[in-house]
Each structure stands twice: as C-alpha cells, then as structure tokens.
Amino acid sequence: METSAIAAPPLAVETIGLTKRYPLTWKRKVLVALDHLDLQVRQGEVFGLLGPNGSGKSTTLKLLLGLIVPSEGEARVFGLSPDSLEARNRIGFLPENPYFYAFLNGDETLRFYGKLCGLSGAKLEKRIEELIDLVGLQNGRERPLRSYSKGMLQRIGLAQAMIHDPDLLFLDEPTAGVDPLGSVQIRDLILRLKKMGKTVIFSSHLLEQVQEVADRVAIFSLGKKVLEGSLESLLTVNQSTQVLIPTEMTPQQQDKLRQFIAQGGVDEKEIRFTRPHLSLEQLYLRTVQNQPDVAPKEQSRP
Amino acid sequence: MISSLHRILIIGRNTLTEAVRQKVLSVLLVFALIQISSSIFISQLATPDLDAAGLFAEQIKLVKDAGCGAIGLFGFFIALLSTALLIPQELDKRTIYTILAKPVRRAEFLLGKFLGVVLLLALCVALMSLAFAATLYWQESIGLATVEANYGQVGDWQHNAHAREMHDNDVALIIHQVRDPQLVEAIVLIFAKIIMTAVIALLISTFATSWIFTIITTFLVYLIGHGEGMARTYWLAHGAETTIWQSGLIGLIALLIPDMNSFTIVDEILAGHQVPWHDVLNLLCYANVYVIVLLAVSVVIFDYREL
Fold first, then answer.
1. Between A89, A96, A116, which is nearest B7 by CB?
2. Whole-prediction pTM value?
3. Domain boundaries in chain A?
4. Above 0.90 for ipTM, yes or no?
C-alpha cells in the first residue's frame, strides 16, 4: 500500500526577484545590494544565511522586516506584506551588534518592548520571567544595560525579539562578539526554538555553528544567492566513503586494508588513512565545561 | 486607534525618561535655573536715581526680562538639541530597528518621539517658570521690606493720609509688577515658540543625514522666521514697487517658514502693555496649525525614508 506524500509545511517567508539598489549619486553609479533573490523558507525551518560582509544578508533581513523598500520584486512573510502590523506581530528581530536603551535595566527593556507589542499586566510580567530564565539573565535584571557585556546584550536582544512569542525570528549575527560558551548557549536556544516549532532565519560567520543548527542554508556573494540547499545535500561528498575505526591502526594493518580495498578496483594511491580531529570549538567546550565553577560569588556587604 | 495612541504614549514616555537621564540636558537646565535666579543681581543695574518704589518696579521689570529671556533661550537650546538628536541617535544605535520590527508604525514612532520632546520641554519650562516665580517673589519681598523700612524712617507716616496713600501706591506698584497675570500669557507664548522650533528640527531631521545639518538648518530657519515679519511689513509698505517674483518669493517663505517674529508680542507683555488673551489665542492657533502641518509632512517623509 502506498503512503500518501506528507504535505510540506506552509511558507513562512517567500521572496520573488527581490532586488535592492542604492543609487550612488556622486559616482553616477548604482550599488546592487541584493540581486533578484528567490527564496522560500518553510514554517518550522532553521535557515542560515551565509556570506562575506556586504554580500546581501543584512539587506535581505531588512527587506523582510519592511525596514527598506525593494527596488524590484516582492517579499511575503506568512503571505503578508512585511511592513503590515499583522506580519510584525508574528516576527521577532535581533539586529547585528544590538544596542538598546542604555538607561533601562533588563526588566525595563523587556517591559518596554512588551508594551509595544500590546502586552501588559500579569501576562507581561510572567513573560518577562520566562524569558529572563530562558536566556539566563537573572543577574542582569536590575542592572542598566550600559553595564552589560557583549554577550549579555546579545541575550537581552534575543529576549526582546521573543517577547511577543513570535512564530518567526530573524537573527542577524546572533553570536557576533560572544564568547564560545555564550555562543553555544545561543545555538542551544535556536535548537530549542526549532523544537517549539518556530521558524528561525539567521546570518552568521561561524560556519560550524550554522552547520550544527541549520536545516538549510543559502550562500550569498556580491548581492546574489549563489548556492542554496539542505546541509545534508550540500555537505555530503559523493563518490567517497569514510570509515571510522575506534582503535589506532598499525602500518601493517593499514597496508592489509589498503590491499583489500584495492581488490575492489580502487586505486591504492587514492586510499588515505588519517586520525580524526576535534574542532577547536569542541576542544574548548570540553575543557571549559569540565572545569568546576570558580566564578566569584556575590557577597553581601558587612 | 486606541492601541496606536497607546504605542505613541509608550514611546513618548521612554523618550522623556531617556532625556531626563541625559546629563547634557540636566546640566543645561541647571544652568538655566541658576541664570534665572541670578537675574536678581542683574536687577541691581536699574537706574539708581528713581524713588524707592520706582526703583523696585524697574528692578522687577529687569528680572522679568531676564527670566523670560532665559526661559526662551534655554528652552530653544534644549528643544534644538533634544529634537535634532532624536532620529540620528536611534539610527546610530540601531534601536529604531528593534522598535520598527515590532507592530509599530513609523508614524507612531515619530509622533511618540516628538511627544517625548514636548513632555520634556513642558517639564523644563515648568521648572524654569517655578524658578522665575520664586525669583520674582524674592524680589517682591526685598522691595516691600525696603519700602516699609524707608517709611519707617519717616516716622509716624501711618497717621498722615498723604504718606499712607503714597505708601499704599508704592506697595501696589511693586505687587502689580510682580503678580502680573500677563506673565502667564508670556510663558505660554514662549512655550509655543519653543515647540515650533522643535517641530522644525524634527522635520529637518527626517531627511537630514547628520544632526549637525539639522541644528544649523533649524537655526537658519529660526533666523529667517524672525526676519520674515520685517520683510512682510516692508512688502506691504512698498507693495506697488515689488515685482511678481519678489511677491511670490516672500509668499513662499511665509508659507514654508513660520513667522517667529509674531512672538515678539512677549516683549509687549514684558513692557507692561495690555495684550488680550484673544491675541494670544490667535497666535497659539497659528502655532498649532504650523505644528500639525509640519508633523504631517515629517510623518510622510519619514515613512519613505530608507533606514
């Protein structure tokens, strides 16, 4: 008996020929920041935008938020125009290197953004509690944001982006300037959001992290999308096989194995034996996470 | 509609809180309060050859001139600085992105920011007016005490009808000078003029790329606004001699730039001339229309601005 194909989730984001040009009046030229982008992101996906600086990632996010107007083409968010209030009710945004009102403390910041989203009273206070717990900012609730570290700012930024429990989150370089441990916490948060069924579109320069969380990625260069697909399909090296053996092989054992494989018609010179490596991030995290907690504890004044 | 107003209020309150916690504006305000209070020393420059009551009346007038002048001047600077920095600060710190990514319209954001500035200016003018009132009260106390002391030296003046009448006149003159209800008109007009300055700065900042440009241009518009009245007077006096181009240019300037010179009516009030509330209300209506029109234009420009 044939099983019927599972319907794909509806689209969270769709762009058709989305283009942004900036006229450089003095030079009599036009800068094409984004060139005819066709993109579809389904609900529940974690989608990574990759590319060097100035490749069009942030422009894409700004267009999807309705902060700038496309020169050509169109963008839809949940089938709505990005600058409609209905769409923005379902969107959360963390800008790159976010600065917030430095004179507000953590709680006040979330209260301000919550009220803008129509939350109030006990519901808002409960949401603030939840988010402070979620991003681990208990020690920053009463401190003004001007005293926050880069990582703390990034976390309060994530919390404000999630204050109204949006279905779609745009995160522009969410781990920029954050230490590796904080970076992993943000990665875990994205994974948790994915489990909650949220759609996350984020840009990052940390390729390994993107690899760990993204379902699909698009690579941008000079304003154009040059590659798009699932990580599985993009990263699999076809026509080769990797075997992992949990012991160290002697040269004799390697020769025997090489000869055995060569009997199958493979050129002996093409067969390589290497030891697996940890990534530097894996090494760092193993080292740091195994250390006892030696952070100075707060002491009450005598 | 209600939620829209609610969002404008939230942004306005946040803008006010930010401005109040900014040290530059606080320093400016403290400076203004000191300036107003110290006007009592300026009053010592009054013509010394007047009689006691006349001297004090003159001194009180100097305090009033200096006080209203300080409220207008510092109010102008606070309005100019706080409004010119509104949008550039939001863009530099990218806080605008986090707000406009929420269900907030650009118009709500801009009006909220302006509301915050208006609240700040109202607070500053109220504080400066309190300092002004306290200074006037202080000057009145000194004046009355001096009059009493002078008459005390004369001797039994209370039983001399003429001396009593002179004493009562002197006291009435001082009290009349200090407790002048027209001062309320003057303060309201100064506030309206400050708000007009703020709305001009807001309009320019919606398309300006730097706050320095906003400050310089607002200042120029302010100056032209003062010269505009004189130009119109000249035009009306020499109507037959002007060409159609000159008339058109003056008409265009009158339409685009508010006539700040109309607010010299405050000088009339301070000079002791009676200015009816009717004239004040007319001027307030004129200011109101300008503020609403410039706000509407600002909203339209800001709506199309690339962020």
1. A116
2. 0.83
3. 9-90+172-235, 99-165, 241-302
4. no
